[in-house]
């Protein structure tokens, strides 16, 4: 039986695990955006904090995913539910590209544009939301695209702690030494990452040439 036949024969389970995977990625990215964007803005406003914020995010990226899941597993509140733990870990992994690109995008806005906006009497908040963020949006979206692709890949490890997702097939296939089962999880996850990269890339280009 080929991999495609296996997927067809188990399409209900593939569908369920794909939805679980999407849910993990979507929740993680929403949290990462809600934390990463403000931190990226903070880095541009408080350069003294840049080393600490970016350093902490970089350290998280260097921790192997299984080790991070295991470390968080001992936390009293997080360790109680696998999906809660998985979303927290995935959020931490997604922060660095979002923070970096938000900071880089805002810092890269032409100074003459900012001076013109200030000359028109804009406040700092107006400057941020009406000038800096719109002009930096393509760079920010590039970071979101990278973070999303990373999250789709790392989310396969969530199955190791019982959080579900397409990693269920991968770990099951490894235990059975069955490439068909491994690919039944790996192929949909890869297609999901490619689709996310393509769609976010389209949105990014729209803002770049707007």
Query: What is the element string, with H for helices and E for strands?
Result: HHHHHHHHH
Number of helices: 9
Given the helix and strand composition, which structural class is it?
A: mainly alpha
Shape: elongated
Largest sheet: none
Query: Strand tally, please?
Result: 0
In percent, how much strand structure appears in the residues? Answer: under 5%
Supply Rg. 20 Å
First and last CA, distance = 50 Å
Mean pLDDT: 90
The low-confidence parts are: none
The helix content is over 70%
Concise account of the structure shown:
The chain is built from 9 helices and no strands. By secondary structure, it is mostly helical. The protein is elongated and about 70 Å long.
């Amino acid at each position: 039986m080929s991999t495609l036949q296996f997927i067809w024969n188990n399409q209900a389970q593939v569908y369920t695990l794909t939805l679980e995977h999407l849910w993990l990625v979507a929740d993680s990215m929403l949290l990462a955006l809600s934390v990463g964007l403000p931190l990226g803005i903070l880095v541009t406003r408080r350069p003294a904090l840049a080393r600490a914020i970016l350093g902490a995010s970089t350290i998280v990226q260097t921790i192997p995913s299984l080790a991070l899941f295991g470390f968080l597993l001992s936390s009293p509140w997080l360790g109680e539910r696998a999906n809660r733990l998985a979303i927290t870990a995935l959020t931490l992994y997604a922060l660095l590209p979002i923070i970096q690109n938000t900071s880089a995008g805002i810092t890269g806005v032409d100074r003459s544009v900012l001076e013109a906006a200030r000359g028109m009497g804009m406040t700092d908040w107006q400057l941020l939301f009406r000038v800096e963020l719109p002009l930096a949006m393509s760079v920010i979206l590039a970071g979101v695209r990278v973070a999303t692709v990373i999250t789709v890949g790392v989310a396969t490890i969530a199955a190791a702690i019982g959080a579900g997702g397409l990693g269920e097939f991968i770990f099951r296939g490894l235990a059975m030494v069955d490439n068909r089962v491994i690919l039944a999880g790996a192929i949909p996850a890869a297609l999901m990452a490619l689709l996310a990269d393509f769609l976010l890339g389209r949105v990014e280009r729209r803002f770049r040439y707007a």
